Every structure is written in C-alpha cells, then in structure tokens.
Amino acid sequence: MLEVRDLHVYYGEIHALKGISFQVSEGEIVTLLGNNGAGKTTTLKTLSGLLAPRRGDVLLDGGSMVGTPPHGVVQRGVTHVPEGRRIFNRLSVLENLHMGAYTRNDRDVGGDMESVFTIFPRLKERRTQVAGTLSGGEQQMLAIGRALMAKPRLLLLDEPSMGLAPVLVEQIFDTVLTINRRGVTVLLVEQNAAMALSIARRGYVLETGRIALEGGAAELAGNPEVRRAYLGEA
C-alpha cells in the first residue's frame, strides 16, 4: 500500500531524514518508534505533503505522492492527525468534523458523521460545544474524528497519547484498534512504545534520521536494546 524509498528530508542545511525506507501493507498497524528528534514527525509531515523530500520517493499503491499538495494527499486517501491535535479551537465540534470532509462531494458525509459518533459518543454529546473548551482527551477524539471524516484508507497518527491520563491513553489505543478493524490502515508514531507495540503488527525504530531496527511487534518488544531505550528497563 505505502512504500517509502530512500527518503532524504532537510530543514535548511539540517539533514533530518537520511535515506529511510519502509513499507506499510493494507490492513496493518505499523508503528514508528524513536526518541525526540529522531525524525518521526518529519516522516509523517513528508508523507502528508507538508514537507518536500530532497531525494527519494513515497509511493501509494505504486503511484508517487511526491509533489502532491496536502489536500491532494487527502483526496488520495491519506489523512494525518498531527502532534498536538491542531483542531480549530473557535469552531464547534460539528464544524470541525465538517472541515474534515472538505475534499468530499459525495452524499455519505452524514452517515460518516454518525459513524464517528459511534466511535466517539462523547463527541455527539459535545457536538455544539466550542472545540477549544473540550478536555485534552476530547480534543484528541475530535482530531481523530476529523481525520476519519475524509474517509481515509491510511491514517497517520502522531503521538495520540501525548498529555493524556493513563485511562484515556488506553481508550485512545482501543479506538485505534477499532478504526483498524473497520478497514483503515494505520501508521502510528508514538512515544509510549509499550502501548504502540501492543497493538501494532510491525515496527521501525528511528535514530537520528535513520532506521536502526525493524521487525515484528513482538520481536521488537523482546529486543534488549528496545526494552532498555524505550520500555524503561535497565
């Protein structure tokens, strides 16, 4: 489904991604792990068209996405839930969700809105509330719901558990599993390596812009280096 080939991305003269390559097959949950500054967010921004690679390619179903503007990436079935949620604070919950469907011209928007409310009943309760007044967990639900309104085939999730209480973290990861079971492929960037590996099929570990390790989720969870660096074990 998604193939990243020898991707090099720069911020000015800073070489942020140094030739990374990886794949995500349809129906998978794949996680990108790594410390701050490893290149995880840069990777997602490049996949969603917010950053342009200097070299390399990003292929979706065999067709290059390099040079496609962000709205075109969404139209091709890829949506991005950014780090920090980035909801429209002054708009209502309903208005935020409708913004997620701005590239669509079909008649299924109402049905998909109800589907989002099925996944996130709290959003239905808060549908007329100004988004900026929601709790952190509710805002994360809204950010994911907004992305789902574009009917993605591939969902890019950047740090969905950041700043949330442990009970809400579990709810968010349960929701990611639910979304995946409904047919959406997921590429997950997450600092909480234990939770990410508990729901992912495979994973990649980024270190200073390069892929240092890759493998099945269980394999990575059992790797002594991963356990020491990302799972808090001595």
Account of the 3D structure:
This protein is α/β, with parallel strands linked by helices and 234 residues long. It has 2 domains: 1-77 and 152-234, P-loop containing nucleotide triphosphate hydrolases (Rossmann fold), CATH 3.40.50.300; 81-148, no CATH class. It is 37% helix and 26% strand. A 6-stranded mixed β-sheet has the order 6-7-8-3-9-10, with helices on both faces. A 4-stranded antiparallel β-sheet has the order 2-1-4-5, covered by helices on one side. Helix 3 packs parallel to helix 6. The longest helix has 16 residues, at 166-181.
Approximately how much beta-strand content do the residues carry?
25-35%
Number of helices: 10
- Helical amount: 25-40%
**Mean pLDDT over the full residue set:** 92
CATH homologous superfamily assignment of the largest domain: P-loop containing nucleotide triphosphate hydrolases
Structural class category: alpha/beta
Regarding CATH, which class of the largest domain?
A: Alpha Beta
Q: What form results from the Cα inertia axes?
A: globular
Query: Uncertain runs with pLDDT below 50, 5 residues or more?
Result: none
- The total number of structural domains is 2
Order of helix and strand elements from N to C terminus:
EEEHEEHEHHHHEHEHEEHH
Tell me the distance between the termini.
37 Å
Q: Give me the side-by-side strand order of the main sheet.
A: 6-7-8-3-9-10
Rg over CA atoms: 17 Å
What is the CATH architecture term of the largest domain?
A: 3-Layer(aba) Sandwich
Count all strands and give the number.
Answer: 10
CATH-assigned fold name of the largest domain: Rossmann fold
Q: Biggest sheet, open or closed, and with what strands and sense?
A: 6 strands, mixed
